[in-house]
Amino acid sequence: NAGVTQTPKFRVLKTGQSMTLLCAQDMNHEYMYWYRQDPGMGLRLIHYSVGEGTTAKGEVPDGYNVSRLKKQNFLLGLESAAPSQTSVYFCASSYSREGTQHFGDGTRLSIL
Amino acid sequence: DAKTTQPPSMDCAEGRAANLPCNHSTISGNEYVYWYRQIHSQGPQYIIHGLKNNETNEMASLIITEDRKSSTLILPHATLRDTAVYYCIVRVVNTGFQKLVFGTGTRLLVSP
User: Fold this and answer.
1) What is the average per-residue pLDDT within A14-25?
2) A4 interaction partners in chain B (CB closer than 8 Å)
3) Is the pLDDT of residue B31 over 60?
4) Which of A47, A75, B56, B107 has its CA 20 to 30 A from that of B13?
5) CB distance A98–B98 less than 8 Å?
6) In chain A, which residues have their Cβ closer than 8 Å to the Cβ of B105?
């Protein structure tokens, strides 16, 4: 049972490039979340999804897009990467809105 | 949204109890207190949560004051592997969605 798996684990981009981060969960969870964590700070919610085909904005959604075409996958896209998006990105999932959130091990993204 | 206040760092000797305090003086009656921890370079890990009563599981105990304005996470026999950043979080429910607001947490260092 893998839980929440994030790919890739590391990536370096140039300013203006685009990329997609993939989050996959095998726990049949309805809710999925994308957070970012900057050095010395707590996690901030970027976008979330309450079920297949749905997405919603979190605290810091600007510059990101998401999609939830399949229940088990939640994709985070950067259309035109900026140095301010250098961060560690965490994906999480939960069975219900009250349920415990389970986190992946993160994607470390550097934008030059 | 209720805010939490935690000391930035604490030390604990291996084998001793670690008591991590958290203030949440503006908590509402239907808001839960959650604790997560983040071991270096990993995703956050759920520890425990509670509403009014004290709670205990295989990882820790949670003591919530009668007025609910503060709580304490207790690791009864701290090990070196408990060295991590510990987040005290008050769960916010907004239009049906559960949002976890992470602060900067307490960095616990367990020493031999």
Assistant:
1) 96
2) 43
3) yes
4) B56
5) yes
6) 42
